Amino acid sequence: MKKWLVLGAMVLSGFTQAAIVAGKDYNVLPKAQPTAPGKIGVVEFFSYSCIHCYNLEPAMASWKKSQPADVAVSREQVMWGKNMEGFVKLQATMKATGTEEKLHRPAFEAVMKQRINLGDEAVLAGWVAKQPGVDAKRFMETFKSFGMQAAVNRAAKLTRDYQVEGTPLVVVAGKYAVAPAEPQRIVQVVDELVAKVRAEKK
């Protein structure tokens, strides 16, 4: 009986560590995008209005904490149209004010679970004022600043350049786009792609 248990564990392990396949587990972008020099870039395209992004976020956040210095992980709110500008500015404001790690998950919870439209400036102002440890006045001043239009333009360009047609979309090294899957599978594929890129650099 123990023998079969061991064999079963080996088979299961083999499936877990199975080599990823292009066209199935990931796709190669037609045109590779630039990444930070000397780093393996991992970009997670998401939207605060996307339930699949909400479900993936805990797995990606946990994965990010375990990454070595040669891996640079970032999130990018997609920009498909005018109705997404508020969300783009929201994330850009978090980055500019150093509050992204504090507010990213709460913002997701507010939008997805409490049905609070944080893409609306007036609604956002009321929500931010209730967040502990956040300078609401500075946050909203940044949100309304002229520079935020540049963030909107940048998000639109990234969405086009990476050919983001659905979210979540995780892209490794500016060229390997992970195929849709359950959160844990996405993280596994990202891990293997990072290892692949690291090996290609040697």
What's the SSE blueprint?
Elements: H1 2-16, E1 26-28, E2 40-46, H2 51-65, E3 71-77, H3 85-97, H4 100-112, H5 121-128, H6 136-143, H7 148-161, E4 169-172, E5 176-178, H8 183-201
Parallel strand pairs: 2-3
Antiparallel strand pairs: 1-5, 2-4, 4-5
Please work out how many helical segments DSSP would assign: 8
Radius of gyration: 19 Å
Q: Please state roughly what percent of the residues sit in beta strands, choosing from under 5%, 5-15%, 15-25%, 25-35%, 35-45% or over 45%.
A: 5-15%
Sequence of secondary-structure elements? HEEHEHHHHHEEH
What is the straight-line distance between the termini? Answer: 44 Å
How many beta strands in the DSSP annotation?
5
Structural class: alpha+beta
The strand order across the widest sheet is 1-5-4-2-3
Shape: globular
- Tell me, rounded to a whole number, the average pLDDT: 91
The residue fraction in helices comes out at 40-55%
Main pleated-sheet profile? 5 strands, mixed
Q: What's the quaternary structure here?
A: single chain
In terms of per-residue confidence, which ranges show pLDDT below 50 for 5 or more consecutive residues? Answer: 1-16
Write a structural description:
By secondary structure, the protein is of the alpha+beta class. It has helices spanning 2-16, 51-65, 85-97, 100-112, 121-128, 136-143, 148-161, 183-201; strands spanning 26-28, 40-46, 71-77, 169-172, 176-178. Strands 1-5-4-2-3 form a 5-stranded mixed beta sheet, with helices on both faces. β2, α2 (51-65) and β3 (71-77) form a beta-alpha-beta unit. α2 (51-65) packs across α8 and α5 runs antiparallel to α6 (136-143).
